[in-house]
Amino acid sequence: MEKRPLSKTLSGVIAAVATPIDENGAPDLKRATDLARYLLDNGCDGLNVLGSTGEATSFSRDERKAVMDAYKKNGLPLERLMVGTGAASVSDAVALTKHAAELGFGGALVLPPFYYKGLPDDGLVNYIEALVKATADTKLPIYLYHYPQLSGLQWHVPLIKRLRESFPSRIVGLKDSSGDMAFARSAAAVGKDFAVFPSTEACLLDARSGEFAGCISATANLNADLCARAWRDGDAAALDAAVTIRKLFEGRQLVSGVKALLSHIHGDAALARVRPPLAPFAAADRTAVFAGYDAVRAKKVA
Question: CATH no. for residue 28?
Fold first, then answer.
């Protein structure tokens, strides 16, 4: 399978990689780096580390830094990884973004500061300006993370345009987890050099045509090989199988479900652990999702 070259900004199939948890409730750094390497070797062009699927907001600043450090120490290709650095506290966001820049990550994925709702655009611009200034020496690319269902705030299109005008060399893209494809297309229309990643692999054939930069998907932890065939070869049958796996989680808890299915795929019960406030995947859901996944894989898409 021939790989498409990565552009200056990230592109292609990007898994929102899960963060394994050890028996004490802390990030399991060995399992985390092993999973990352596995995904990069089996279909992913890049990874989103410490995003929503990675339970970033459930970890302390030091725990998040420790995960970043482990990726660096274990020789993972940080230029292919974007890391979540958004936080409710601007000082935490600055510290995390600066750390990511110093380690050499390919980009920072930034949630808006999510506690205060109804913020004026000026406040959000000031927040991003603080991150830009803190990483001015490295010019770390910044990707906006649009997930209004969880953050309660929007990187709406006029605000994106304002940020691009204010920081033209730094605001390079957006991950859209809203599920609103009309919004994703409006964001992508901001500029040909603005990389938009919907959170579903269902968009990959549209992305091949240039509409999007790729996808950043939680379920790419589970179906990266199929997603890669869709992205690199335009394989519609592989994409159908990948989307079928994604649909197994409709109406179910996504993060705990992804981790449960990872434990099934890799034969490692520890991969199913989640950090409070998340709860383990329900037993009935496990049975249904495991059976559905095994059925898709048994078909061996040609």
Answer: 3.20.20.70
